[in-house]
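Side project, low priority. Logging it here so it doesn't get lost.
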Amino acid sequence: MSPWLTPVLGLVGAFVGASLAPWMTAHLAWRRTRREAFNAAISALRAAQVARHFAMDVPAHYVGGDAAAVAAYNQRLRERGIDRFVDSMHEAKVALAALEPFYKVTGDLGRWEITEPDADRMLAELLRERRRLRPA
């Protein structure tokens, strides 16, 4: 064997590694960003569906006080629950919009609320797509 073979192969290996490193870094960053966007959309959509079902009409023995205090507490509880639901629905739609560079979820996002059947379908679609994109 030639004494030049080892240094030449070393230089070729360094050149190939230096050429592929930026591409590999960009590719892995893109995959990580895509995976995080899917995870954020799935989490936000699930959180919105959880926020849909909030506490109402808490029994008086939990709250204490007279009937007027309990009624006022339950009214505030409903108002806070609705506020949380509307906010979480907005966050879910923002997360779904942030996912669009990678994947567009089918469905109407023009309304303020994503209905439960639509949310179930979207969650199944997002989970299926995330699983498909995951490396083997």
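Brief comment: The helical segments are 5-52, 60-63, 67-99, 116-133.
Revisit when time allows.
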